[in-house]
Amino acid sequence: MRGRRLAPTLSIFGLAFLALAASAQAAPANDDFLSATPLSGPPLSAEFDDNEGATKQGGEPNHAGNAGGHSVWYSWTPSIDAHVVVSTCTIGGNLDSLLAVYTGSAVNSLSLVASNDERAEERCNSTDSEVEFTATAGVTYRIAVDGKGGSEGPFGLVLKGPAPNDEFGNAETLESGAFVSGTTELATKQGGEPNHAGNAGGHSVWYSWTPSSNGEAFISTCEFFGSFNTLLAVYTGSAVSSLTPVASNGAAADGCGPWTDSEVAFDATAGTTYRIAVDGEGGGEGSFELRVKAKPDNDEFANARVLGSGLPAPALGATTLATKQGGEPNHAGNAGGHSVWYSWTPSSGGPVGISTCSHAVDNDFNTLLAVYTGSTVGGLTTVASNDNGGGCKPNDSRVAFTATAGTTYRIAVDGKGGSEGNFKLAFEGSLGGGEGEGATNGGSSTPAPPPALLASQGTLQAKPKPLKCKRGFKKVRAHGKVKCVKKRKHKRRK
Known about the structure:
Elements: H1 7-21, E1 37-38, E2 44-50, E3 72-76, E4 82-89, E5 97-103, E6 111-116, E7 130-135, E8 141-147, E9 154-160, E10 172-174, E11 179-183, E12 205-209, E13 215-222, E14 230-236, E15 244-249, E16 263-268, E17 274-280, E18 287-293, E19 305-306, E20 315-318, E21 340-344, E22 350-358, E23 367-373, E24 381-386, E25 398-403, E26 409-415, E27 422-429, E28 473-478, E29 481-486
Parallel strand pairs: 1-3, 10-12, 19-21
Antiparallel strand pairs: 2-9, 3-8, 4-7, 4-9, 5-6, 5-8, 11-18, 12-17, 13-16, 13-18, 14-15, 14-17, 20-27, 21-26, 22-25, 22-27, 23-24, 23-26, 28-29
């Protein structure tokens, strides 16, 4: 069993359990087999529940070999074949959980798939349960949670499976400048799939990237916490069993640390679809960030990314490897050198605030933000500009102005002193006296101040959580960042 899999869900269980334990319950709605609560997923489905007041039906089996007496039921029908883990998590209360998975349409004629009383590794509580099995698409699985020896209490039920991009055919599409979160946990290796970076691995996920321009590209993994050693490989080809290698790497990336991250560099060709695989060395599994550094699609003024006509939702972007065009103005009074462009034509007018939020990894990225009107890069009229107006960090930028309906605004993001990095471009305010798409202040007459933690949305983070290393690992600083690495045993000299 894998003790780390439930960790991301623990922080939200506590509050749910307090609410559930606040009052005694009548029989739960999913007490009977035919009233089972449906589950979604994979990759993740979580339910907060309580078996207090539940009963055991006539003909119902003893789950995990124990008579129990207070069972609740769930049903799950996967849309794809997947290896999954189902587990309980109890914090407080008296429940010693029993967990069982079946197939069948009647409570008295079920076929057992898997069952467990107490998992091998402690996660939330030593009396929790966990099962692991390979599910078949279209089959309905019946999941029962009961209490050993008749025990009752609140619990969380988690169903976890592989990410949707486990299969080559379901690769996640990336843009130039992308910085996305991923995981290889519970992922598989397909028949005919190559060994990435020369290592057998065993738990790969897939991405695809089609650049719009020629140029050098850098793709890297970044593993902030823990010791997951990634494998990274780039290919061309349309089938997993007949791929042509472009580049691969198993370690020594200039990402978050040089020990476990991976990075590749190659000359990308416009219009070519590159297949990117991330796996774990020696069958390891874990979470990571994947970054694509290449000339952004919206590098040039004429190729500005068009935003919605309402108040746009936050847009992720990057200035890394972007250029500055001839005749382009100095944004916010600074020469910069790596600008990207957006175009926005609001359908209604009103006060608007626009801010940048630079990625936590890019500590040296000092954004420049400017808004213009005009149809050519050499003939623009400034509407508003800012260097350090404060978005998520002091070096971020913010502007405020009154937008006019039907006017096309040209928005540039650059880096002060030639700095580069990833960012989020966020909009706030109101249009036409009411809420627009993505509005944050519901129609007030002035732009709302930027949220204190804009970075908590999407894949950007204002502050990473304090790093704690597990036993056998130590903190090491490299490239200005801190991560956990395995301690090496030193032999004593005789």
